[in-house]
Structures are given as structure tokens and as C-alpha cells.
Amino acid sequence: MTIAYAARGASGFGAAAAMPLLGLVLPLKVLVPAWTLIGIAAGTALLGSDRNKVSWREIARLVPGTLAGIALGLYVFTLLDSATLAKWLGSLVLAYGLYSLWGTFGAAPKPHLPPRIAAALGGFGGGMTGTVVGTMGSVFFAMYFDAIKLGKESYRATMTAILMTLTIARGIGYFAIGEFSREVLILTAILFPSMLLGIFIGNHFHHGMSELAFRRTVACALTVSGLALLIK
Fold first, then answer.
1. What is the dihedral angle through the alpha carbons of 205, 142, 28, 218, rounded to the nearest 10 degrees?
2. Cα 39 from chain centroid?
3. Closest CA to 37 of 221, 227, 197, 184
4. What is the mean pLDDT of each run of 10 residues along the chain (232 residues)?
5. Global pTM value
6. CA–CA separation, 46 and 84 (whole Å)
7. Distance of alpha carbon 98 from alpha carbon 95, whole angstroms
8. In angstroms, how far is CA 59 from the centroid of its own chain?
9. How confident is the model at residue 180, as a pLDDT?
10. Burial of 160 (0-12, 13-18, 19+ CB in 10 A)
11. Contacts of 190 (CB under 8 A, 6+ apart)
């Protein structure tokens, strides 16, 4: 948890690596709602001074599809048990980990979609995936940002803002369907200090590793975690 959030504090991505690892020892029906509460706190801490760099126009384009994805994701979440969620998350993480690793060698093709289609797919895919498995929604948002060639300066801030929007909306949904149990709140309290420590470390040592080396490390961690969840 600390290492994953140090990664996010340093570069804006990488926290997703902790989710499948925690899923090896914790039931996802408890972990996913707890991860949502942690995500709200982390997003608030990270947005900070970056809030002036958020592209609110792109947020507005993503929100309708994201809300639709959340609605369907909540329905799917209530139908699946922890074992099935683990398989779903494992498959998604493995695929994305391999794709990310491929991309660090300059081999992965970039998606080229019309902005409106990319916004609809990015919002819906991010909303549904983020709600069902508690993470990885950023994969679909990143596809949209690639399609519109969002500038590097506002990329991290806008990603944090849309993930905050997703996290808060699905948190309201989890609350409405009674998923914030006593076990969820206890787990959130246990994970919270590690998240804060990770962000603190990341903010102070963000120059310690090259972006390429870091992306490869995260991609490998995601690949191994996805395989572990599939064979759990």
C-alpha cells in the first residue's frame, strides 16, 4: 500500500498495483468499498495545488458516460461474489500490465478515436470498471486523453479530478446499496496510514527514478498481480 501510493504521489499513477495484491488476502466485496474511501482521501490530498490545471471541459465530456457506467457497475457488483470479482480483476490487470509493458518499448499502438466516441467509451468503461473492481478506471480515461492529445501539464490534474468524480459517485452508490459495512470501515482505517505515508514519500522523492524505469516496474507488478489473482 505504501509503495503503491508512493508511486502515485511521485507520478500520478501506480496505486492500482496495490489493489490486486491486497485482493490475494482480502475478499474483494470488502476491499472494493474500502478502496473507494481511501481513493477519496488520496485524491483530495493529491489534487491540492494542481486544481488550477484541471481541464474542466474534458471532465464535463466524460461525466455522462461515467455516470452511466457507474449505474451498470453497481448492478453487476451486487450480482458477483468475491471469487468472481477476483477473476475479473485478474484478467483486466494482466491484460493492462502486459499492454503497459509493451508500450514502454515503443511497440504498443496508440488508440486513435474521434473525441466524442472516445469520451463516451472512456467515461462508460472507466465508470463501470472502476465500480465493479474498485480500480483500473483510469485505463479508459487515459484512452480518451490520448485521443484528444491532452497536454502533459494538465494530464495528471485532470486524471485526478475525473478519478475523484468517479470515486465519489460510486461511493454514494455503495452507500445506497449498503456496502459500507463495519468490516469495510475497519479495513479503511487500517489502510489509511499507509496511504498517507506513501503519498508523503512520493511527493518528496519524485525525482529518484526515471519515468521509463518506473513505468516498467509498475507494469511488471500489475502483470504478476493479475496472474496471481487468476490462479488464486
1. -40
2. 9
3. 184
4. 80 70 87 90 78 86 91 86 77 81 71 75 86 76 76 76 86 89 95 91 68 72 76 68
5. 0.71
6. 32
7. 5
8. 16
9. 92
10. buried
11. none
Interhelix angle 211-231/82-103, rounded to 10 degrees, is 150
Please give the single-letter amino acid code of residue 8: R
**Hey, what's the cell of 92?**
483486466
Distance CA 1, CA 47 (A): 19
Return the SS3 of 209.
coil
Q: What is the DSSP letter of 51?
A: G
Task: For Cα atoms 140, 80, 91, give the angle at the middle one, nearest 5 degrees.
Answer: 45
Q: Where are the alpha helices (DSSP H) in 80-210?
A: 82-103, 115-133, 138-147, 152-176, 182-204
Determine the pLDDT at residue 190: 95
